[in-house]
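Notes from the 1:1 (GR / supervisor)

We went over the backlog. Supervisor wanted to see one worked example end to end before approving the batch request, so GR pasted a single chain during the call. The sequence is below; no edits were made to it. Supervisor asked that the structure be written out right there so they could see what the output format looks like.
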Amino acid sequence: MKLTIRYGALMGAALLFTSAPTFAQVDPVAAPVEAPVVIAPAPVVTPPAPVVTPAPAPTPTPQPTPAPKKVTTATDALKPGQFIWEKRSGYNNTLRVVAVIDIQRLYVFDGDELVGFSTVSTGKKGHSTPTGVFKILQKKEYHESNLYSNAPMPFMQRLTWDGIALHAGKIPGYPASHGCIRLPYNFARALFGATKMDQEVVVLASLSKPAKPKPPVKPEPPKVDPVPQQPEQQPPVSDQPIVTPETPPAATPAN
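Structure output shown during the call:
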């Protein structure tokens, strides 16, 4: 069926309702509103993580102990016969001289400051240089050995009375002396002019072995020519004969 609404009919119905008696107004009853149904999502169940036992750490393979590295110093750059000396107008302290046999070096300090260092040549096999703490007992600008064919020993500084000294000599790069400590010529001259009598000189076998102090050195006794003995005094010989007194006779006992 086709429904049609006309304007006139609509307006007439409006008038009809206008003239109709009024009724008590009744609040419209609201239709109940159904609460929306909320569907909760299904809980997500996380499966427990599998327990993984760590593999045992591999046992380390022991490594051989590396050999200790050799301690190098600035002097290792020096060639046999070379040296370094810091020229100064004066020194604040008595110089300290230290010779090290295994590396064939000699160091000179002013307090804690290094003044110079040099290559040296110490005693060869069978004539080893003694180690310890020594004192400069004698200084001679030129000296000749009393033991080895009057060998020259320029700028000699005696450490012992049995022939050990610092002096200028040949530096081949290895121990070659008869026990003395040979120095390059110009270094020996500079050191001779800077040291004093009775000051200490330390001689070490190596840097890892400290020197043991030596007992006090007794000064060399002065050489005195022996006094010729005088002949024993004899009593003067007399021309008179020597008379021995006679022995008196024994007394006869009385009866």
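Supervisor's comment: Residues 7-19 form the longest helix (13 residues).
Batch request approved.
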